[in-house]
Amino acid sequence: MYDPFINNFIKNCSKLPGIGTKASERIALFLMQNRQELQELNKTIELMDKHIIKCECGFFSTSNPCYICNDDKRDKSKICIVKNMADVISIEKTKQFNGTYHILGGLISSIDGCFPQDLNLDNFRDKIIKNKINEIIIALSATTEAKTTQFYILSKIKNLKVNIFEPAHGIPLGADLELLDQATLSAAIISKKEIENNDDF
To answer: What predicted TM-score, i.e. pTM, was given to this entire model?
Structure first.
């Protein structure tokens, strides 16, 4: 029905989260009818591809360390472990955490093909020791995959003299952090509960 170039755009646009074929078609037609918008979008994507890199914490920025890791006003002795960058943004919006972050890049799930070695944890234990971290918040969703991942994280940092917490109850079962409203997430962060980490892992 469409020109091959437009069909290719629709096919690739449909791969984006939350955008199906119908939405991709509407976007394609809009861009064809508004060439200036098409050129601006193309320029923006090229600049992102050229300048955005991944910080060692997993955050995408124009520098490594990123602006969060470089912020001297943050408490560098605290670190919050999250699944992805969207979770960082969600927690930042609550204004309830003033430490730094560590993004895993996924959760352990055989169904999704994500295994322990795929997580951003290779040098995490060394990072905790080097940066003299004394508080870790493991802020993951309330899912089986998240609990499996949390168990693995605890096994990686066992015997370290560090206080480990998780958000308090109130996060709905199966819910991703990025989808929670700010009030719920804020309350969960404020009333965090401590996790025991011992030699049993």
So the answer is: 0.87
